Task: inverse folding
């Protein structure tokens, strides 16, 4: 059922669940929420996906609050189970940073921890029954609600562009503007192959944020689509398929967060290398 109460076909059901709650400029010049996909499309670039922003912010705030509270109350005498769990995550991140990052930068480990936990939390929203939160939202008059932020390319590209800016910043800071430019122009084939070098290094540089964003988005979007397709099946079949897929999807949730975090460390390590 849609928010308006009409019966949805299979096609409209899928489109409804893939539509973000979008806020932007309407055709009459006013600002408000889009009532359908066409209105959302007409809003153009300066439209906001309220559900993606909202869930991302709430999950990020919950992560920061939990780690802050545990950090304020941690003890070496009788550590709680939550403290032990968080300490194991921190040790895991530190081991990955020590193994992949050879420079000196106190920001890399916190950044790796933040991306890892935040992406896990956003990915985990894919394990919530597909109709639960959209149905609760429809009771409140909210027509669309997409609950998995990482199935929105705006979210994954937003994170990857942030990482890309850090790569550029530390590349210039560590190597100097001239050193960074020389790396782009003279590596890997020397100064006599400058145009070819610039093309290869430019593609390699741009591919970093693109691959980060699309890998995460593609895997989570595919997982969400499978859950939506399962929800279209008869009730007795749903449980026989959704439970095994949910168990398998837990691996995808964790693996995609780990890959994103690892690539962030590796890319920043490359930005700190000066031998070229």
Result:
């Amino acid at each position: 059922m849609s928010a308006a109460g009409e019966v949805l076909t299979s096609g409209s059901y899928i489109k409804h669940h893939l539509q973000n709650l979008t806020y932007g400029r309407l055709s009459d010049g006013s600002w408000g929420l889009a009532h359908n996909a066409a209105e959302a499309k007409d809003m153009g670039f300066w439209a906001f996906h309220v559900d993606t922003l909202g869930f991302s912010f709430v999950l990020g705030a919950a992560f920061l609050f939990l780690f802050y509270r545990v950090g304020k109350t941690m003890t070496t005498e009788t550590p709680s189970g939550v403290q032990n769990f968080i300490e194991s995550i921190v040790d895991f991140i530190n081991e990955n940073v020590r193994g992949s990052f050879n420079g000196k930068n106190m920001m890399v480990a916190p950044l790796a921890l933040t991306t890892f936990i935040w992406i896990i939390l956003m990915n985990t929203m894919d394990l919530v029954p597909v109709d639960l939160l959209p149905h609760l939202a429809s009771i409140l008059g909210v027509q669309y609600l997409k609950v998995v932020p990482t199935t929105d390319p705006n979210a994954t590209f937003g994170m990857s562009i942030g990482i890309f800016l850090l790569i550029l910043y530390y590349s210039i800071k560590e190597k100097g503007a001239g050193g960074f430019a020389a790396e782009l122009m003279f590596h890997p084939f020397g100064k006599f192959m400058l145009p070819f070098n610039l093309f290869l290094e430019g593609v390699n540089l741009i591919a970093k944020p693109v691959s980060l964003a699309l890998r995460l988005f593609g895997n989570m979007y595919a997982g969400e689509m499978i859950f939506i397709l399962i929800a279209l099946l008869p009730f007795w079949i749903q449980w026989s398929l959704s439970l095994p897929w949910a168990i398998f999807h837990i691996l995808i949730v964790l693996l995609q967060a780990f890959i994103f975090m690892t690539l962030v460390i590796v890319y920043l390590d490359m930005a700190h290398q000066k031998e070229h």
Summary: Strands lie at 22-25, 31-33, 48-49.
